Amino acid sequence: MSEKQIEKLARKEALQLGSYNAGMSDDAVRETWQVDSISRLASNENPLGASPKVAAALRSALNHSSIYPDSASLKLRQALAELTSTEAGRIVIGNGSEELLKLLCLAFINPGERVVTLEPSFGLHQIYPQMMGAQVTLVPVDPQMEFDLPAWQQALSQPAKMVILSNPSNPVGCMLGREDFNRLIEQVPQDCILVIDEAYYEYCHHLSDYPDSLSVLKTLPGPWIVLRTFSKAWGLAGLRVGYGIASDDALAEVINRVRTPFNINRSAQAAALAALQDPDHVTASVALVTEQREQMRQQLMSLGYQVAPSVANFLFFRTGGDSRDLANKLLARGIIVKPWREAGYTDWVRVSVGSPEDNQIFINALRDIYATQCG
Q1: Using H for helix, E for strand and C for coil, what is the string for 261-313?
Q2: How far, in Å, CA of 69 to CA of 266, rounded?
Q3: Which DSSP string corresponds to 77-94?
Q4: What tens digit of pLDDT does each residue of 159-212 get?
Q5: I want to staple 306 with a disulfide (CB 3.0 to 4.6 A). Which of 61, 159, 314, 318 is the partner?
Q6: At 37, phi and psi to the nearest 5?
Q7: Among 197, 190, 263, which residue's Cα sits nearest to residue 225?
Q8: Which residues share a beta bridge with 117?
Q9: Crossing angle, helix 52-61 and helix 266-276, to 10 degrees?
Q10: DSSP 119
């Protein structure tokens, strides 16, 4: 069958979708750039990895690989309900929180309906709504790379089917504080679904100005869901476990109707449950990132880069040219970062906060590149 025949069969929304930039694998970098060592600083992974308790749980789970997992993820949902002081019926589990974004769009978005989200944004905040034929309104950050509250209030003055707000934001890392968060959600139309993406919650929930979204949202009359993940601070990116806390059982039930029955495999469920038994590991991970993030920020600024404010486990900095040029020079040294390709931000790079060793390799490489350019 020819490409043209496939295009005739495909939904026009699918043909028009952009591709999510998942980055290059270690093997691809080694093969393309002929490097021996790799510094992974593109995907916001935990440099400490997962808790040692996870490895033990995975070994045990292997003994039951021939048996289907619990479709309802009941034990995990009960553990998360206890963690978040809510009810298990309001917890939904996804193959990463990104799957929950997709399920929300599958369940609720009709062609032509309006979705409001941040710019620059996590790519799937745009791609999944567009997959369903939505009209996406992007609200840019302000010149200081912070949330622009007046712009959000203006965008929310018009009808919308869904609002997707990441706090802290990805890729920028900026945070919407308590007062501004309260003012923003007051503007959300009552007949739309509010989605708060808190993928980086563990890195900032202890900050005095970070909003307690679950407490604030319970006063809203309309539907809402808060998304979180085990991929970042919990160190389970390779196992794909995310979860949502819905405003009520009815919203959770609709989401469950459009997911596959066994979307979370047995090993992933066991790993997430084990990770929850080691909160000290998350505390140590957050402490390392906080220390290293500030050091990296200072070093980037000393090299003349504009660095956006961040309370997450990454930094977003302006390169002064096409971000791919710098990213390719770093790849030649075995360093993987993420050049941003969103219109208006193609001169920005997102770099993860990695291990102290990888962070220093990255900074040293930047200094070498800078010296070469100036020499």
Answers
A1: CCCCCHHHHHHHHHHHCCHHHHHHHHHHHHHHHHHHHHHHHHCCCEECCCCCC
A2: 5
A3: HHHHHHHHTS-GGGEEEE
A4: 999 999 999 999 999 999 999 999 999 999 889 999 999 999 999 999 999 999
A5: 318
A6: -105, 150
A7: 197
A8: 138, 164
A9: 150
A10: E
